[in-house]
């Protein structure tokens, strides 16, 4: 039996996803009947019923599935949406990136990768004076840069990104890889549904835990890209990620972003 508190989290998802998410939870329960029961009685992140909040956009809108590791290990930060830190509002400051962005290591390195990809920063020059200049440019009146994390998430959604974590929960006393293993039947259900589309979305897998999805039965039906997790500094220089994201112009305001039209 799936606990009522876990079932209730489906309500945050778009209606087009809800039958699939129900099937996914049943798959988790079938693989380990004790897991969801124990989880419902435990302390885990994200809180406030946001376990499945990544599924807010319609099923048919998904063009990319980005899979990270797990929620941020802070209640204010864990939103149920991959690397979207709930403690972050403004992206920029007079020192470059804002303090909350710099604290969220994965988000910080993702932002820097985007700045290299769009030519604002030179490869190998993504700190110090170069970041101060980038921040000043973004904060100029009339600049075409987005200002908030919400706008970045909106741009990603507009491009068709489903922002998932391999482990949908974080628990301080449980290794993330263990929770990620428990959620594999759920992710397999989600991906199997997406694989049935005429043009399956592209999978973007970040880090070793996300790479476990390579073992799922449905995975061969997807085009996919892999990279190190963004908490690694080397992610900033990852050429495959720069190539993927450069045309999307995610740091531009939508009205001035040709890729969003």
Structure description:
The structure is a single chain. The model has no long low-confidence stretch (mean pLDDT 95). The chain has a domain at 4-76 and 155-246: 3-Layer(aba) Sandwich (Uracil-DNA Glycosylase, subunit E), CATH 3.40.470.10. Helix 10 links the parallel strand 5 and strand 6. It is built from 11 helices and 6 strands. Helix 2 runs antiparallel to helix 9 (184-195) and helix 5 crosses helix 11 (239-245). The longest helix has 14 residues, at 18-31. The radius of gyration is 18 Å and the shape is globular. The chain has helices at residues 4-8, 18-31, 35-40, 99-103, 105-117, 129-139, 149-158, 176-182, 184-195, 207-210, 239-245; strands spanning 64-68, 92-93, 96-97, 161-165, 202-206, 224-227. The chain is an alpha/beta fold and 261 residues long. It has a 4-stranded parallel β-sheet with strand order 4-1-5-6. A two-stranded antiparallel ribbon has the order 2-3.
């Amino acid at each position: 039996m799936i606990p009522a508190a876990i079932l209730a989290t489906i309500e945050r998802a778009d209606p087009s996803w809800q039958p699939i998410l129900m099937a996914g939870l049943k798959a988790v329960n079938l693989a380990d009947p004790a897991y969801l029961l124990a989880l419902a009685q435990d302390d885990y992140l994200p809180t406030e019923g946001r376990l499945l909040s990544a599924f807010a956009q319609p099923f048919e809108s998904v063009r990319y599935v980005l899979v990270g590791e797990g929620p941020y290990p802070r209640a204010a930060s864990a939103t149920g949406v991959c690397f979207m830190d709930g403690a972050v509002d403004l992206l920029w400051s007079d020192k470059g990136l804002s303090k909350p962005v710099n604290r969220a290591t994965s988000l910080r390195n993702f932002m820097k990768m985007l700045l290299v990809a769009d030519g604002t920063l030179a490869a190998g020059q993504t700190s110090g004076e170069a970041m101060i200049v980038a921040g000043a440019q973004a904060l100029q009146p009339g600049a075409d840069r987005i200002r908030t994390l919400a706008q970045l998430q909106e741009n990603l959604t507009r491009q068709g990104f489903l922002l998932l974590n391999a482990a949908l929960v974080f628990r301080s006393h449980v290794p993330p890889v263990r929770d990620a293993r428990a959620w594999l039947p759920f992710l397999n259900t989600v991906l199997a549904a997406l694989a049935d589309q005429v043009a399956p979305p592209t999978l973007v897998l970040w880090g070793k835990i996300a790479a476990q999805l390579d073992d799922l039965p449905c995975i061969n039906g997807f085009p996919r890209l892999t990279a190190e997790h963004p908490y690694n500094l080397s992610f900033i220089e990852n050429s495959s990620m720069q190539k993927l994201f450069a045309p999307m112009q995610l740091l531009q305001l939508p009205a001035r972003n040709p890729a969003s039209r």
